[in-house]
Amino acid sequence: MSNKTSQHILPTASNLLGFCLIVITSLHISSSTKSSVLDEFTSIVAVLLCFSVILSFASIKSENRIWTRRFELAAEILFEIAIVGIGLIVLVILRKFWFQ
Fold it and tell me: What residue intervals traverse the membrane (predicted)?
């Protein structure tokens, strides 16, 4: 079975997508920020996670071994970029509220 990581990326990316949506909602609810760079950056990370979920699902369901590996590799790359983005989001949020 070629798609070993896709089975782990799918639920994890879905959960992190929920985290991004909570951050976006929290930023819109709070009166301290209107539309910020953090809001837009979080939206970009959410889109990356959406594509990662779609590609990992396609990797699991694909019958063709070549396409399975390509989908899985693309899902891994997008997931890793999104993880770095989430780390940056957390650092910015900590800096913003810690030094307020």
Answer: 12-29, 41-61, 73-94
